[in-house]
């Protein structure tokens, strides 16, 4: 179910759909209380209906929200809509996915090594706190001007 621009979800106002896939829909939204752009990810209904998966999701979201690393997105909030749809809010990373970048222009060896080093550093931090990404792939690595970020709640 796609949300229209302007739809309110608690303190968030939907701006636009950024993407959709097997793990849900992601929207650019505005946190109206703090005036900042965020990414809202809505979980698929089948995941939200499974109590064990939801418990694991909530535990991982809590753990991920405590991470403070330049290459890991910050989890700001988890919530539920009035009709029961579960979501989480993260910092919005403006950039392109590693997949988009490699398709468009490829990577030089030095760039690839830099990205691998940053991914490894983030994974070391997350794993050191008991968080497993579960889905490290080029679509889940965002490239910005020299910094990348990845979502740590089963993106």
Summarize the structure.
The protein has 155 residues and is α+β, with helices and mostly antiparallel strands. It has helices at residues 45-48, 51-65, 98-105, 109-128, and strands spanning 8-9, 12-21, 24-31, 36-42, 75-80, 86-91, 96-97, 142-143, 148-149. It contains four helices and nine strands; from the N terminus they run ββββααβββααββ.
Describe the structure.
With 155 residues, the protein is of the alpha+beta class. It has one domain: Transferase(Phosphotransferase) domain 1 (Transferase(Phosphotransferase), domain 1, Orthogonal Bundle). It is built from four helices and nine strands; from the N terminus they run ββββααβββααββ. It has helices at residues 45-48, 51-65, 98-105, 109-128, and strands spanning 8-9, 12-21, 24-31, 36-42, 75-80, 86-91, 96-97, 142-143, 148-149. The strands form two sheets. A six-stranded antiparallel beta sheet has the order 1-2-3-4-6-5, covered by helices on one side. The protein is globular, with a radius of gyration of 16 Å. The two termini are 18 Å apart.
